[in-house]
Amino acid sequence: MKEIVVVSGKGGTGKTSFTAAFAHLAKSPIALGDCDVDAANLALLMPGKDFVEEPFLAGQRARVDENKCTGCGKCESACRYEAIPVIDDLARVNDLLCEGCRACSVVCPEDCITFVNNRAGTLFHRETSAGPMVHGALGIAQDNSGKLVAKVRADTKFIAMERNIDLAIFDGPPGIGCPVHAAIGGVDLVVAVTEPSSSGAHDLKRMLDLCDHFNLRSAVVVNKYDLSVAVTEEIEEMVKKRGAHSVGRVPFDEEVPRALARRETPLVIPEIKTALEKTWRDIVRLLG
Hints:
The protein is an alpha/beta fold. It folds into two domains: 2-47 and 129-287, Rossmann fold, CATH 3.40.50; 59-119, Alpha-Beta Plaits (2-Layer Sandwich). It is built from ten helices and eleven strands. The chain has helices at residues 15-25, 42-45, 74-78, 103-107, 145-162, 178-184, 198-213, 229-241, 255-261, 270-287, and strands spanning 2-7, 31-34, 48-64, 86-87, 90-91, 113-128, 132-138, 167-171, 189-194, 218-223, 245-250.
């Protein structure tokens, strides 16, 4: 099975809309995974019915046995995160601040503090017109997004193997941090979507550095290239020198955000469709 992940280095370049477009251009059934778990929105462009909804557990949170607690305050003093204040002679846990470090349980003279698994988010499986999709949603103020990304990838690959699907496309997180590492590790091709701006070029360089570090093949598509053809050419020259591949230019069109608001992909716009079809052919060629 081949794996493609669409990344950006920065937010707002169009990677999610491109991922949805690629899913439709693939024609044959594929497996989809939305690895942007901090702000998952691929499901908006890939309508369907979720047939699995399960909790994602990561880390632990403290719990106080109110029948044992004497309100001595030792746990409050030991907690570096101010997550277990004593209120009305009873230790109370703030789940948004608790890191599960267990310092409170170590100093508690009454042995009244235990720990429970923390629900950090939710994982969904969906049927779409292009094929099965796995997407996750990280909870408010939760960390461990890299673990949820790894779970999204694992479930997507399992479903693909179960159904004899030979291509998986992942919508990756922005940036170059831990969630991105979890999204791109071991994939066959990283497709970076960038834009002709100083910030776009800067963050693309960081993304290509990351791909080089993990020895991953990378390809670059410039979105809204005609906003600055000169910068687009500079980016493509840089991509060539880095040994990566340029796989297309997509023009700017004011109709794109209107189409997205209607939950339609950019493929409904003829000029955009033509550019994305060429980009997809180049991506398929790189995959061999």
